[in-house]
Amino acid sequence: MQKLLAISAILLGVAVVLAGCSSAQAVKPEDVVVGNTIPDFSVTSLEGQRINKDSLKGEVVVLNFWASWCGPCMSEIPELKDLAAHSKVKVVGIALDENGLETVKPFVETHKINYTVAVGNQDMFQQFNGVGIPYTLVLDPLQRIVKIYRGPTTRESLEADLKTIQQNL
Questions:
Q1: Overall number of domains in the chain
Q2: Residues 6+ apart with CB under 8 A from 80
Q3: Is the preceding omega at residue 106 within 30 degrees of 0, hence cis?
Q4: In a domain, 10, yes or no
Q5: Which CATH number do you get for residue 102?
Q6: Could you give the CA distance from residue 115 to residue 10 in angstroms, rounded to a whole number?
Q7: Which of 95, 98, 105, 113 is the most exposed place for a label (fewest CB within 10 A)?
Q8: Helix axes 71-86 and 155-168, enclosed angle (nearest 10)
């Protein structure tokens, strides 16, 4: 009987260790660097679709954090609209406006933004190691970070990143 209890205890211990090894660990903000994958997240687009890390897998993504009150963000919007209209990349804008949908939805309609937009928050932004906006991450189909822009970027720069991704696939 003692032998059976000892074996059971050992098996339980092994199961606990293996369970701990298989559980996904959260990405720390300081780990959001080129070459690593993005953190898990979940937001709802203005159209009501759930956007998360898994839903973006298989696509090249430009993930842009912005706000309607941000001047440099405004200079990027036409660049992102043009990129979304003329390339196969998925552009996702995460708005960080404090009033959320109340501000973002009319802004998107007025500016005829043609790419996916969702409302995020500061906690999510910090999870992505965000400090200031605009903040843009270019992701390969496995959701690895290929490039990080802290500040405004251009369609030309993003297209160069997309060519690099295509060459490495």
A1: 1
A2: 62, 64, 91, 93, 113, 115, 155
A3: no
A4: no
A5: 3.40.30.10
A6: 54
A7: 98
A8: 50
